[in-house]
Amino acid sequence: MKTKKSHARYVVRVNEDIHMLIRSAAELSGSSMSQLLIDAAVSRARKVIGQKTSIKLTLQGAEKMHAALENSPVTSDALLDAAKNYKDKNYSETHFSDDPEGQ
Questions:
Q1: Dist CA 60 CA 96 (whole Å)
Q2: How does pLDDT run across 34-63, given as a tens digit for each residue?
Q3: Integer Rg of the chain from CA
Q4: Which of 2, 39, 47, 101 falls 20 to 30 Å from 21 in CA-CA distance?
C-alpha cells in the first residue's frame, strides 16, 4: 500500500532585484529557484535551531558548571518537606494534567 506524501506550499513575494539575484544564483548552481530557496531556508533553520537550543561554554565555564554539579549543596530539610507536601497533595497529577477542567 502506497502512502501519500504530504507537501507544504510556500508563496513568497519579492521585488525584481531579489528575484533576479535568486534566479541567477539558481542558474549558476544548476538548481531550480525552488530548490535554491529550500536549501537556503533549511540551512538557516538548522543554524537558528542549533544556536537557540544549545549552550556553548568556554572551558572555564564548563569546569565551573561541572564543579557546581559535582559539589552541589546538601538538600535542606525544608526543601525535602516542601517536596513531600507537594507530592502528597498530588499537584503533579492535577495541576499539570492535559484535561482542561483539571481532572
A1: 38
A2: 999 999 999 999 999 999 999 889 999 999
A3: 26
A4: 47
